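Listing S7. Sequence submitted for prediction.
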Amino acid sequence: MGGICEFLADKADQKKNLYWERWPEMRADPSGVRRCELFLGLADGAAANLGSKCTSISRIAVTIGTSAAARICLWHSQHEEITVTAGLWCYRITKDLVLLGGALTDGGSVIEFCRNLLNLKQEVDFAACMQEVANLLQQDNNDDYQSRSIADENRSNNEIFLPFLGGERSTGFRFGATGAMCGLTKNTTPAHFVKSCMEGVTLRLNEILKLILSSIAITPNQEEEHENPILVVSGSALEKNTIWRQMIADCSEIVVITDSEVTECTSRGAARLAAAALCSISDGTTGRGIRYMLGEEPLMPIERCEPSFKAKKKWADATRAQNELIDLISSTW
């Protein structure tokens, strides 16, 4: 942070500087004080994690906007080796803070796909469909699911959706992958279709979460204690959709938190990192100051979704079915 500013200051003895000509605000006044600071660009995923208050090993940020992602911050000095599990990506936010995670090309865009395909563009129609989805999930989570017979399974609607409408990023990075749905019957309704699409995205996000959790287990030199992780959600698709938040909690078996201050989290995270850098520059603490400023913020929960034990078998079956379908048709991509 502040690298360009330092570069300009080092070149103060030059009579002509191309940066100063383009951005005269960067030039120091005669007393040596610069009128503004210029910071390098920041990846939106990194900014979203900082803005979601997810800067410790016990908080994982889950975002569903147009796309979807799950990410965790790890404190690693630039001299430490990082083990990255296959299927994830990793990059540095600062010299001591690393972002580890995975992303899906299609998240909330899947809902838009459904609304256009099923003619649910009117809010009243979509709301009615989502109420039916909620009813279907309630049926899935009742006590009878645990003891369903094979005949019951054959009569029920168990659509399987692969949400690769724009190709696959994490975890397989098969960019030629396409979406698919299996299990359609004459009894399939728009609500079944939408529910399956939401479940498809949820299942792929959970695959990312499982890889993140396995990476935490093998990541050395972490100062934070290994607490039970929580998921802090953001993004328009999740902020508006209670059903989807509960799906993620049930599928991952991890508590999902919605925070009252985590809105416009990307902008909030960029502002937070800039503030940390400015404070570090002003007091001369550099990396130590940034770590202090980017420490864990207290959460302000407005909703807490607890995993449902009754849904455990349903999501285990859905995970197995989706992975089997991917294995069966991936050779065609």
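Caption to Listing S7: primary sequence and predicted structure tokens for the chain studied. The chain has twelve helices and nine strands. The longest strand covers residues 68-75.
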